[in-house]
Amino acid sequence: MKTQLLTTALILALASPIYASGSHSSGHDDETKTVEEGSHGHSEGQDSDHLEMAAGMPGMVDKVTRTIEVSMIETNDGDMIFEPKSLEIVAGETVRFAIQNKGELEHEFVLDTVEKNAEHKEVMAEFPEMEHDDPNSVRLEDGQSGEIIWSFTNTGTFEFACLIPGHYESGMHSSVTVAGQSAAVDYTIGVVKKVNTKTGKVTIIHEELTNLGMPAMTMVFRVTDDAMLEKLSAGNNICLLYTSPSPRD
Ligand SMILES: [Cu+2]
């Protein structure tokens, strides 16, 4: 008896492609590929590692799930602020920050951990002329706008801040809280009824998923992993693992 594992995002089950992730130990070649593709042209090896920071990593335009407009403002009472003042994000989101400097001074947007920004701020105090071009930052003159596309891969509390001497202290920092997905998870046994290698569609009769309140039924899955598709055939017993991300509020 052959037992395999399907991972699928239930929330996508009705409309979009479902991904099925690795069965057995065919190495992690397949799994790392997705990460490589997401890393701006680094085509091989573990190059993408250095791009990943505590706050996440540079994201790709076609993965953007949300655009957040950020303004840099100098207030009448002498403060310098970002709007919004705080943000909540769910891990896994790729956010496009559309940043506009609405003030009269030059400002920057640096997304990082609070600690890293504090370190960085000290360096800036010593070398005020220092300019950066890191993927997690953008510096804008008055009236200018720019953008950062960021993939939030980790949970935690981060911030975006302006590290030009004096600006942080004048209020130029906003907190970014990244929460985990509270996913419902369940698994059950299924039997493969039909495999269509042309369309990648696999029909599976599965038993009840009690955690998800889903009765036993026959469902069609799209398997995007060719290696896995080849291993599946009618009559196989498989183990189905479902994860259902809870909808955002
Ligand atoms: Cu500033």
Domain count = 2
Specify the CATH homologous superfamily of the largest domain.
Cupredoxins -  blue copper proteins
Q: Which fold name corresponds to the CATH topology of the largest domain?
A: Immunoglobulin-like
The backbone outline, from C-alpha atoms, is elongated
Give the helix proportion (percent range): 10-25%
Order of strands across the main sheet: 1-15-12-13-14
Low-confidence stretches: 1-49
Oligomer: single chain
Radius of gyration: 23 Å
List of distinct ligands in this structure: copper (II) ion
Broad CATH class of the largest domain: Mainly Beta
Estimate the mean pLDDT confidence: 79
What is the chain-wise order of helices and strands?
EHEEEEEEHEEEEEEEHE
Distance between the termini: 43 Å
Q: Which class do the helix and strand fractions yield?
A: mainly beta
* DSSP summary, beta strand count: 15
**Proportion of residues in β-strands:** 35-45%
Major sheet summary line: 5 strands, mixed
Total of DSSP H or I helical runs spanning 4+ residues: 3
